[in-house]
User: What shape does this take?
Amino acid sequence: MKSITKYLTFHTEKRFKLINITPEIEKIVRESAVNEGICLVNSMHITSSIFINDDEIGLLQDFEKWLENLAPHAPTEQYLHNDTGEDNADAHLKRQIMGRETVIAITKGKLDFGPWEQIFYGEFDGCRNKRILVKVVGE
Amino acid sequence: MKSITKYLTFHTEKRFKLINITPEIEKIVRESAVNEGICLVNSMHITSSIFINDDEIGLLQDFEKWLENLAPHAPTEQYLHNDTGEDNADAHLKRQIMGRETVIAITKGKLDFGPWEQIFYGEFDGCRNKRILVKVVGE
Amino acid sequence: MKSITKYLTFHTEKRFKLINITPEIEKIVRESAVNEGICLVNSMHITSSIFINDDEIGLLQDFEKWLENLAPHAPTEQYLHNDTGEDNADAHLKRQIMGRETVIAITKGKLDFGPWEQIFYGEFDGCRNKRILVKVVGE
Assistant: This one.
């Protein structure tokens, strides 16, 4: 069994940002030399997500509006968590809808994807360094 | 390490449909001859889901009503994505709530399930061919 | 390839309860003697979740209020599932938002976590025995 573990760091300029990270993950899969196996990609923070969806600019804006409606940032006093002095309770909730991680099949040395699958890093409380983990396991 | 990769195709008659695919996945696990390992099942499209829940007819109707309330199809103009000429933005959102994939333990050659766990394909933008991927990895 | 499979049982006194189970999972990872691999943790029931988020008391109360708003328990007659005589349709829905499972990287013999990641069992229909599955696979 082969395995490779990599950490990527993101620092967004805005609180909310969705970033297509597919090329970075493809590079790690090539480097792993795994032909058959799986690739785990997860956020190492609890106010951001890894998810797979379509890379379409209108849709990415729809996601932001929709998440803001389901888990609004303001008023920040609506959340007990924010009594700690933080203001990011909404980001902890948004992350549950969008998910922490994805597990992707590797077949014949590549991410085994449908035609529109793209991997996103979803940042809901940015403006600081945050990490994701990529682990490839297989043969 | 053994591995097996299979693709299943679904074509629903309605836009929204939840289909119990447990028997198809069990068949692939038997075929893999893996005794201890994991089984990844994921949608290869970004407007459908794989998820595990109970196979109870009333509950499946509750899911449809609930998802329609959280991410309504109409009015389609409420989503920027639909300016592309598509009308399926809601399906991209519904899929985030229900999830892309599941990872299931295989123990002693079988899906290691609790008494009510059933695997579903969740179609939110059907009436055309769509694929799922099944990958079994183990020994 | 090594693998280990364990089952943990929970019985909460309240219908809704979020329990930090990180120490129990760390113990199983140590016992597995796996250095590089993955750890799957999943609920074996369809009205509870495994998820990773922050262990902060205010946040845990925020989760309860937020989930109750997105998938309310009462009035129970709003759900067709409850015509079966059960009253837990909301728990089936809450579990979809919070997720069934998590897959965690194991690196150098430990759960490869960011600074605030904690594993939770999310019970949405408690007051009876329910099980989770932990499977470690690797080398």
